[in-house]
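By convention, each integer encodes one residue's backbone shape. The lines below illustrate.
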Amino acid sequence: MDLEAVRVLAWPEFLASPGQLHHAFTKENGQLTYDGQFVFDLTTPLAAEQVGVGYHVQKNEIILIIHNEAEMTSLLGDLLRKLLLMRITVLHTEISSKYSMETISILEDEFAVLINTSHPSIKTRLGDGLKCAALRMSRCRKFCLEVDMSTSLHDWYAEHKEAITSCDDIHQMKVRRARLYVTNHTIYSHCFDCKPHWWLCLCFCWLLSAPCYMSYRKLTCTDIYVEIHGEITPAKSVQDESSRVAIDSSRRSYQTV
């Protein structure tokens, strides 16, 4: 893992055999265990409680709430020296038009994603973002740091699952819980991003609402954006029958014509 930026493994397989993702993870008495000195587990509030910061999930995004400089300093150290474990969901919709009949398939895949923050492709950008947030905190300013790996995982999934739009098929993907927010304010609302559906259906509403919201954010908060661009490496899969059954039974799949 020291040479890899990001490693992924199907979540059910991770629960069945956690050591496949990294040797820091083990399974004892049917429960996942790991050394908290090396892993920051962003899938549960436990790691955040140990650091002393607030933790909650809003709109499928992970949010860490900072109240003072001491919490910020402690969190900064943990995020820069530990492996970050995330549980990310990809909702994959495929529209197939073979034989002149449209078939819609929806597949929900969950992955254990381990981010190596000491990797050169991640360390500098993440460190700069955290230091900028710490500076705002020291000046009693409002800030929101967003660490986003949705684009990287989206691109990896499209290639790994061959989910690339072609003449016959259309693929659409949504990535959930791929953003980590560190803030002493509120998170940035991406619903005002300039997207095709705004221009096609609600262009006038966007022109009225989006500039007001963006002006409000600039006046009340400093938004810091860090995108994770590290190469994603699938963990070596060593499936036995029990883990294969666990994966097959956990994947949610829907199909309609």
